[in-house]
Amino acid sequence: MQFYKCFSGFLLRLLDASNFDFDQFNICYFNFLTKREKLNTALKKRNNYSESENYVQSVPDRYSINIDRYKEKINFLNFQDLEKWTKGNYANNIVDINRYFFLNLCIDYLIEEGISGNVAEIGVYKGNSAYLLSRFAREQGKTCFLFDTFEGFNQGDFSGHDVNASLNAFSDTNLEVVKELTGEKNTVFVKGYFPESLNQTGEIENLVLVHLDCDLEKPMKSALEYFYPRIKKGGFLIMHDHSSLYWPGAQTAIDEFFKNKGEFVIPIPDKSGTCVIRKV
Ligand SMILES: C[S@@+](CC[C@H](N)C(=O)[O-])C[C@H]1O[C@@H](n2cnc3c(N)ncnc32)[C@H](O)[C@@H]1O
């Protein structure tokens, strides 16, 4: 059905060759070839999720054709969480479903490999990614530390590399909104300027998953210095904005930090260019 829709759309568009949308056609053709469209329509029905079609193009096999095996084995991903993933930040996050699946996948590996410990995030904003981390910590009986000003950037952080930084970015949030989204159990909210805010927490250790998503060079550098040595073997260090070309400050901090560490970051093809390492 979807194919015929695409195909008739294609013919119609051919009639008006000057307006032909090759991108749209390629997306339809890709979906037809991979049978994703059909599969995901079924998935959405199964999960009562109907808000958007944008995520249907790239559901990994374990969460789609092998979902039953996945549920028997690990069963962390919950499609209902997509609402949390997009809440308050729909336009940005609905087109970043790869990142949602990637975060879930890292958690799956930790569960499957029995690597258990605390988690942390620097850069929480409305709590969309934090929700997954917080739920993981709860289910493991561990602690999730969430660091943010909850008021947006601090001007003192802006370096020459942070070319897209603006003062009012990410200021439209607050701690209560985040708490409501993530839940409070097993979660420590550290409100304040990072890294100074570390003095509110005491020593944080035994980390298995750290998510750095603070966009700017200065806090990214501080966060790497503090968290990298505190991640245990097998733990994930996930760094946002490495390859997107939008936050060169974050990329500079990451590249500088790993220059002499004998580590190479692995790039992830999500919307904003996440990269990752696993601690050896
Ligand atoms: C891109 S948003 C985080 C998005 C969130 N991780 C998600 O995926 O939904 C970046 C956040 O970093 C926070 N931030 C940046 N620099 C900071 C600093 N020095 N201290 C505390 N928070 C900071 C901002 O307040 C903002 O909320």
Give a structural overview.
The chain is an alpha/beta fold. It has a single domain, classed as Vaccinia Virus protein VP39 (Rossmann fold, 3-Layer(aba) Sandwich). The protein is 41% helix and 13% strand. The chain contains 11 helices and 7 strands. It has helices at residues 2-15, 22-34, 36-46, 67-73, 82-86, 90-93, 97-113, 128-140, 175-182, 217-227, 248-258; strands at residues 118-122, 144-148, 187-191, 207-212, 231-239, 266-267, 275-278. Strand 4, helix 10 and strand 5 form a beta-alpha-beta unit. The termini are far apart. The mean pLDDT is 87. S-adenosylmethionine is lined by residues 89, 123-125, 128-129, 147-149, 152-154, 157, 170, 193-194, 213-216, 219.
Radius of gyration: 20 Å
Mean pLDDT: 87
Question: Biggest β-sheet: count, sense, barrel?
Answer: 7 strands, mixed
**In terms of per-residue confidence, which ranges show pLDDT below 50 for 5 or more consecutive residues?**
none
Order of helices and strands: HHHHHHHEHEHEEHEHEE
**What is the CATH class?**
Alpha Beta
Globally, the shape reads: globular
Can you list the ligands bound to this structure? S-adenosylmethionine
**What's the CATH architecture?**
3-Layer(aba) Sandwich
CATH fold descriptor: Rossmann fold
CATH superfamily placement = Vaccinia Virus protein VP39
Whole-number total of structural domains: 1
Distance between the termini: 49 Å
The amount of helix comes to: 40-55%
Structural class: alpha/beta
Please give the count of helices.
Answer: 11
